[in-house]
Amino acid sequence: NGAQRPGAAVGMSSYAVIGTVQGPAGGRGPSPGGRYRSGLAPSRAFDFLYDPLYALSSEKDHAKANVQAHLMCDKMKKMPIFKTMFSSLIHYPWYNLRLEERNPVPAFIDQRWRGRAQQRLEVLQQLARSQPSLQIPQIVYEDPEINGRNRYKYFERPYIPFHKPFPLNVAYAVAKTEPYVYPSIISDRSRSPTSRTLGTQTDYRDGEAQTDPYSPEYVVPLGSIPELLTLATLTWGRGLPAGQAEVEMIERAREKRAWEATLPPLSDLSQTEKRRKMMDDMERKEWAFREQEIEKLQDVRLEVLKKLLRRREEDQNEVDVNRLDTHWFNRQQDKEERVRKIKHEHIKAMRKLIAKGKNVEGKLERRDVIRDYTDYASQPYGPLSRIGYFPDNHSERYVVKNHFLNTYEGLLELEATLPDSVIQPQTKAPKPKTTTTKEGFIKRTARLDMELAQVHQVLLDKKNKVKEPKKPLRFLQKITKPVPRPPTPTLLKPSIREEELELAVIFLQKLIRGRAIQNMMFEGKEKRLELIRELRTTHALQEDGQLLKKAEKQVTLALQRQRDLHEHKLSLVENHLARIEGRALVNMFDFLSKELVRLQEERKIHAFAMLAERERRIREAEESGRRQVEERRRREEDEVFKQVVQVHQSTVDSYLEDVILNSMESTAEEQAREEIQKVAVEINDIAYEMESRRTRLQSEEIVAELVYGFLIPELQKTSVKEKVRQSQRKHISAAHQIIHRSTDIVVAQNSSVVGQQELGGE
């Protein structure tokens, strides 16, 4: 756990926590990665400077805490800009935001990181471990005064939201081997335990506390091996907290220790066979347990492989679905594009057919300019782009861009240049030359007189128009001869049969046109029949006409009554026949519907029977396939087990072979070293003895042998090498001269050729 202040517990949870409370000297170093601080309330801004127990893991964290504290204390201040002080535009703000720095920490407080001293102490401790001669002075802590004035810091009741008695749970921890060194002032006081366990309340969770749980120091008495130390390899996250596998491992270790205690000692030679037999049994048990573990591991790997295959299949299915969706989307787009083109072609074809239908006979019509300009949907007003006219192209060139029209100052200048008559116009209504009514309209007679006068004036102008004489030619003009006309084509005289056919067709066309006009007139008469009758009734004012109308009316009423009676009789007969026919049809349809339902039910039953038979066959096939898969898997597992056992046997054989070879090599090497040392000692003794007995003449003989054996052959070898080098130097110099001579000739020839080429180019 990180360094803790008094009153803070090591364990932390969302409710009440029972933990070990450490004094100021009992905290451990913080874990890397940031600051960890246990407490009942969140830290303040500058706790990392004031609080002596506030620990930070590195200088980087110290800088982060300093920046956060200044951001909490400093404030943003608006500083106005003189040039744009009264601006309301976004891109010209009237102020800037500046950070107003406030440093509430006094100058005498050291704002540097306090971890340097701890790092130096750790380095010295590491040096002391590697160099025993280096002595580090013992750190003496001041008295925490747990039973004195600081007692309130180490005891605190938890805050419980409900009214229920909460007993104070206090558990005393084991005292440390090296107690504190107290000053002489309070040496007479009674020593209290260095740590206690109290119940505390906190707002934090375990996930917000330290990374690893607190592990207290311990001392192992001589001659004892606690069982708990056998689990020292288990750490937090790797075996801790213990699960079922760890508990089984601990139980197996206990059984093995109990079994080892029951083994006969090695010193008892009479029970060697019993010990070997017990060890063989234990080895077989271990191999069986190992095989079970391998089977479990294989099952787990098989499940993982199944999950991976299932996931891969799902991913592949998803990819296939996405691909099909993309393909379907592309096909839909192609379909829509084709439908759009077909519709477009259909519209074009219909437009062409309509245009052809307007002129079936293929007659050429002259352009009616008046009709074109009176119809605002014609080509002069709205030309079609398919004809080749695009009215929107280069439309910006027609936009009037003028300084006097686009700016306010230009408008003022333009207004100043205009006279008052333009700015302030005065209009007078013209007096009509013709007579008008009180409302101001021209009378019809006056309008007719005006039109007649205009027509008379136009006729007089045409009548009195004098032809202008031809002007004489000032220059000679060339008279071009007209191009001769091509010969007039002649047609062959058609036969009498063709003429009769053509006349018959023309007559038929006339009949059809006449019939069409007659139908149009008849349709118009039918549409306006009421109007015709109304006109006839209004004009039939004579008595004879009225009498005729009354007689016609009575005749029509009588005919209408007769027709009503006849229709009533027919309706009665039809109703009776319809009733009879309906009864027969109802009976027939009822029988047919029942037969249809019966046939449908029979087909459903037959279909259900077929489906049941198919399901039974499918299940039988699946069961047979599953049985085959299980048999194949059983064979595979048997083969895997055989291979594993074979591998284990081979590994054991290879291990034993390696052990035997290594032992043989080590023994052979030791024996060789011992023999070599013995031979070296004997040779040294002989050499020392010869040195002690050797005379001057023997020494000179040895020197002469060394000279004749080593020095003189070496000199002869160097002299032979020098002679060979001298003999080779002659040949090398001759070869160099030949090569240099040939290269000089080639260079001279090349230079002359290049010079001739340059002269020829000039």
UniProtKB/TrEMBL annotation:
Domain CFAP91: 200-352
Keyword Protein transport: no
GO cellular component, one term: axoneme
Keywords (A to Z) from UniProt: Cell projection, Cytoplasm, Cytoskeleton
Compositionally skewed regions (Polar residues) per UniProt: 192-202
Transmembrane domains' residue ranges: none
Span list, region Disordered: 189-213
Keyword Cytoplasm included in the entry's annotation: yes
Main location: cytoplasm
Location(s) in or outside the cell: Cytoplasm, Cytoskeleton, Cilium axoneme
Domain of life from the UniProt record: Eukaryota
Pfam families: CFAP91
Family: Belongs to the CFAP91 family.
PANTHER family: CILIA- AND FLAGELLA-ASSOCIATED PROTEIN 91
Name the record gives this protein: Cilia- and flagella-associated protein 91
Organism: Chelydra serpentina (Snapping turtle)
Gene that encodes it: MAATS1
